[in-house]
What we know:
Layout lengths: L5 H12 L16 H17 L23 H6 L17 E6 L6 E6 H18 L7 E6 L2 E4 L11 E3 L6 E7 L4 E3 L2 H10 L12 H4 L12 E4 L2 E4 L5
Antiparallel strand pairs: 1-2, 3-4, 4-6, 5-6, 6-7, 8-9
Amino acid sequence: MKRIKPAFILGITLLLTGCLYPEDRLAKNQVPNEVQLQTVQEAVVQFQEASDGLLPIKTRHSDTPIFQKYPVDFEKLREYNLMGRAPGNSFEEGGKYQYVIIHPETEPTVKVIDLRMAAELRKMNTLIEIYRNEHIYPPFGKQVAEGIYRLNHESLGLETEPYVESPYSGQPLPIVLNVQGEIFIDYSRDLYQALQKFEHEYEYGDDIRYILAENYPFVPAYSLPYTIQDGEPVFMEPQS
Length: 240
């Protein structure tokens, strides 16, 4: 097994284990920052250089949604002596973030998924499963696009419409259903703000979710594809 830059390894170990800070400042108690992301990014780049272009990623099914498809495999980084342990705020260390890679074939870039959103979706899926044990169709509410619906929260026994907190803005994001009854987070609000804030050359048919993934530490996980129409985000039409 190849060994790579011991000094670099020591720096990563000290940074990610939090041994230089008191407990209340450990990485696991902080939101993802540029230092943490850059540290993992450098380890990923060095792994790729040492393994003839391979990436340190866990195997996922081919139909896994794109932003969840390439989670960083910290065990592989440890095997190459590139990292003593995963960041303290990572899923592997009991934290609330999963480190993932976007653009794996062109410019592999490390980002994170806020797993608190997944927890909220699991809760909602449980309610939907209970509902569907007694009803033929999912709890469809108002239709917002072709084949996309808001949740009928009253049918689920909820007083208000459920939402998840945006990792980008902190604003509430709705949950939507497709015709199969699968649930997703609606990032339309965040996408609209990002389209106004950042320069871009997106055209109709492009997946504009990358404007969030490329300008923030977070990826828009658990989402449907969006494109742009008349300067605003819209759901992509389902492929036949």
